[in-house]
Write a structure and sequence with these properties.
The protein is mostly helical. It is about 65% helix and about 10% strand.
């Protein structure tokens, strides 16, 4: 999947590896996270596969920068991937659920503390979706009005995150109440 995050980022403009990692951290990390080392390993592999090319730009005071650009083959691969429907629901991983599943073995207050900490973190993320990410999308659109359709897709992705966080918080509230009453 990281392959398509990288190709997608480069579909907007040529970028350095550092700029791609910044792009991921400002946008895609809310649904697909990558370490810096993964980004560079994948960029190298994509270049070997002919899906992108890079050039080293010399800069006066800073170290040289490698700029990556999508090739026609890379754009075709990305578009082909985007056009094919997903026919399965991807499995999810949730560390909190693993902990909770086995938490009958520990005391009630420890379980409740873990749930309350998670609730606070999810409230923070919900606030981020409702404020900073909305502002980022609006700012991006103001700077590049030709990306109106992209901004729509960015916002529906943001909205999914907002709705999931709202549902997760509601589930945490219900779970906290049940454990307080029944544990």
């Amino acid at each position: 999947m990281l392959k398509y995050v990288l190709l997608g980022a480069l579909s907007y403009q040529p970028l350095t590896g550092y700029q791609i990692k910044q792009f991921i951290d400002r946008s895609a990390k809310h649904f697909w996270y990558a370490q810096t080392s993964q980004v560079y390993r994948n960029l190298e592999a994509l270049e070997k596969d002919g899906l992108l090319v890079s050039v080293v730009e010399e800069s006066g005071r800073r170290p040289h920068q490698r700029i990556y650009r999508l090739t026609d083959a890379g754009r075709a691969d990305l578009l082909d991937w985007l056009r094919h429907p997903m026919t399965e629901i991807e499995p999810t991983k949730d560390s909190l659920l693993v902990r909770l599943f086995f938490s009958a073995q520990i005391d009630k207050e420890t379980v409740l503390t873990q749930l309350r900490v998670q609730r606070a973190l999810h409230v923070q993320l919900l606030t981020l979706y409702r404020t900073e990410i909305v502002a980022q999308i609006q700012s991006g659109l103001a700077q590049r009005p030709e990306l109106k359709r992209d901004a729509l897709m960015w916002d529906v992705s943001r909205r999914q995150g907002e709705m999931l966080e709202s549902a997760y918080i509601a589930w945490l509230d219900e779970t906290i109440q049940r454990i307080e009453a029944e544990f």
